[in-house]
Amino acid sequence: MIYRVAWVLVLAFLKIAAGFKIIGRENQVPSGPVIVVSNHVSNWDPLALGTALTRQVHFMAKDELFRNFLLAWLLRKLGVIPVKRGRTAKSAIVESLKVLKKGEVLGIFPEGTRNLTGEILKPNAGAVMLALRARAPILPVALSGTREFRKMKAIIGKPIYLDQYYDEKLDKKQIDKISEDIMNNIRQLLKTA
Questions:
Q1: pTM
Q2: Per-residue pLDDT tens for 56-69?
Q3: What Pfam families does the annotation carry (predicted)?
């Protein structure tokens, strides 16, 4: 309930204040587990990405945000998963897999941090590793205009299914290659913005 109310209010605000447009809504995965991935250049990105999709998106966020009791309560109600920055937190992986096992949507920014250059950074492999473990498709989304907070767009690409890899044991190099291919997909979407 809190998520849906927040979703409506944030979407209305972004449309009015930043001209937010959503392209490719028909590419959403309507049910089952999915990992949505995007470029990350602004603090507005989680809000834009979350409102671009009609299903609730569970994000990971730095654990410092959970130090304030009231903010921690709200973030948990919104489905946010705390993560310790700078290292792989086993609890974050476990919680992320729980979200996916329940058939829900997990939002990840593969670059790992806000990219202040505007160029897409080398991705972390976490999204692909989780997708393989949960047998979930990856939905690429390109965000533009979030840094300037004007003419904002979310361009939703077609889902990427990794079925051919589910029963294979991939090494780090192969997972990194798939991760880079997904970021290249986002780069191509950005060119249409």
A1: 0.92
A2: 999 988 888 899 99
A3: Acyltransferase
